[in-house]
Predict the 3D structure of the following.
Amino acid sequence: MDVITTHLNADFDCLGAMVAAKKLYSDALMVFPGSQEKSMRDFFLKSTIYVLNFTRLKDVDLTKVTRLILVDCQHSSRIGRFADLVGKPGVEVHIYDHHPEASGDIAKTDGLIRDCGSSTAILAQILREKGITVDPTEATLMMLGIYEDTGSLMFPSTTPDDFHAAAWLLQQGASLNTVADLMTRELTAEQVSLLNDLIKSLKTTVLNGVDVSITHAFVDYYVGDVAALAHMLMDMENLEALFMVVAMANRVYIVARSRVAEVDVGEILREMGGGGHATAASATIKELTAIQVLARLEEILRLRVNPRRTAATIMSSPVKTIAASTSIAKARRLLTRYNVNALAVMDRGEMAGIISRRIVEKALYHDLGDLPVSEYMHTEFMRATPETPVSHIRDYFVGRNRRFVPIFDKGKLVGAVTRTDIMRTMHEKEELYDLARHVEPLSSKSLERKMHKHLSERVVSILRDLGKAGDELNLSVYAVGGFVRDLLLDIGNYDIDVTVEGDGILFAENFARQFGCRCKSHQKFGTAVLIFPDGFKLDVASTRLEYYASPGALPTVERSSLKMDLYRRDFTINTLAICLNTDSFGTLIDYFGAQRDLQERVIRVLHNLSFVEDPTRVFRAIRFEQRLEFHIAKHTENLIKNAVKMNFLDRLGGKRLLNELILILREKEPLRGVERMAGLGLLRFIHPDLRYNMTIRHLFEEARKTMDWFDLLYLDEKSEQWTLFLLVLTDQLNHDQFWGTCTRLSVNERYKVRLFEMRKRGVQVLDMLQKAAARQRMVRRSELYFSLRELAPEILLYMMAKSSSDQVKKYLSLYMTQLKNISCLTTGDDLKKLGVPEGPLYRELLDMLLAARLNGEASTREDEIRLVRAYPGVVKLQQK
């Protein structure tokens, strides 16, 4: 059996080519492998296409297919279930495609692949050469395919073959009126909205002399036929090269178009797993977020737009060198002195090798510091010339894991290219895209006004002083993170983090000396705390990046740029920075579209492995969502569900999990956070038997009321809100399960024992009080006091919330507001004067006197003395 098919999301060129192929393979079934672009679906509904006898995929027995005819496609990943036939013994694969042959992964046994504006034109020429005619309907369908893929014969990719094929089809009776009607499609409401976002974010940058345009958008639903929007943008803005990145649901789609030879979009997108030809290409990416895709696209564009860029344009000169006889120990001092990671080793005027910092450190670790560097230097290295393409050096770095390439001109060492040089070529120029373009950028004056509105004049002055200190050291200084986020949301926040591009500790120590405050530094982490005389504190850190050795592990930190420092953070809304240097004070830095996400009130991660590397971010996402009344983006929520499914949160240490839980339970409305945790399946990581239900919900609401009541009492004793709500959350666990929960959360051992015992005691007393209330038995004030006196406020509030009896609530309220602070007037010294010997009898007497006062049986000191003298134990002593 023969089958003609094409790629998923087929367009008109696919349809026209399939119709043409059917004329060559008359017995073949025409089958679409999956969905079609929206324009195709509409066409099916409006036309008589069904008379052409397309077969549904579910009606095809793949085991009987002996020949697969592919049109407009060479990739097995794009043909759905038909990929199972590729490489299968006894199955021929014929391919007819206008994309470059190197772009595919399917080896053809027959067919034709050549450069052309459309696949339909290739097949039309074969039909014409064989003398095979087509009817007007078939000719119209084939003309439609040619017109769509060549932009009505106006795209730069159009070839003479497309014109010849169109002329022949016109002779066969193709209706240009029908083609024109179908090519002129009205945009849907979703497409109009998406196009508006794409226009807003469009940015054009001159890259190596070529205007390269990039646009991006985020939508949580699927929008069909986005390629048509790329065509419209190219025409509307008269662009030379366009890369359109659209995040839809769980995928990122890239559509690229080029009208200039310098930008081969097919080559560029092949590096991102896509395909196409020099003027039109596309890619679909599932593993990365849009932010990561844009960053990767920028890296590729920096290197691929102008492949003629050479080593001469980026090399460093002169080159630091070292003699072959120099000792390993001295080499380390030179590496440190020059602040480099590798040195060229010279022997008799010739370069003999390369010694790296990594090798030097290893040698010193093994006590080899006295040996010459010639013993351990790299003697195999790339010998580049000034004309060597940058791309070749980059591939050498990646393939050989090297970081230093010497440049020779006529045998003489004239320069060197390092990995830093390569990175600089990618990032030293203007950003190719701007994730913040969806919103009107805030001016520095606007940010200054917000600072004066939400901060004291003293704190604003401190921020300016930080900038001045940075100017003196030639360091860039920024306020970053949650402080900036809250400032833009008009929320006051004095928890200010400052980051420095350079040595943060050096900066902090210099600032402290200059402005009369204390500096507490942490060399291991490269951070410092500035403590001002009035107690105000500022955290200072060097810009850094982090990487994780395993899921859930603590990060390893390295010095880096501001952009990489912000990229390591949890969510886009926390990636904002404000420059504090004098000339740029108040300038907002937004690399990752944080302003847009603040405006849309959305929580979005920066990369797909965010929750794998640091699962605590799951709880932070919930906390920010509930506190700020935002919503977690659909893709981010899917990543959370994946982290839950893969049990990555099991790898969290108890203390880290407890810290995140405490922060959620300290929120103003902790119930919302707990409900979200329950909905995402997170409670089982606290304890496997932990459940959320309406009983727990009611208990949370009651606990909130009791906490508010307690706070209004303005008592000297304070309560820990998180402890109360932890008790509420774990209410349905038995005592052993509660102990297990505290163990899982690594609660401090002494506090765990105390909390466990108090919870156990509190439940027992509550049961006693409720039984007494049910029997209408009055509980004496002394009984109430001695039952409750060992319990912390959190346990008492938990009991009050848990009780359904108004009488029990009154008992608890009475104890907390009155009885708790009552004490007897008689002291141990008084008892001693009365001749009572020291010992256990003291406690017995003092408790008796306190009970008497609580019950109204003693009100003065004389009453108490009388009761002591009449106490049987004292009477017996006196009789002796």
Observations:
- The first strand starts at residue 2 and ends at 5.
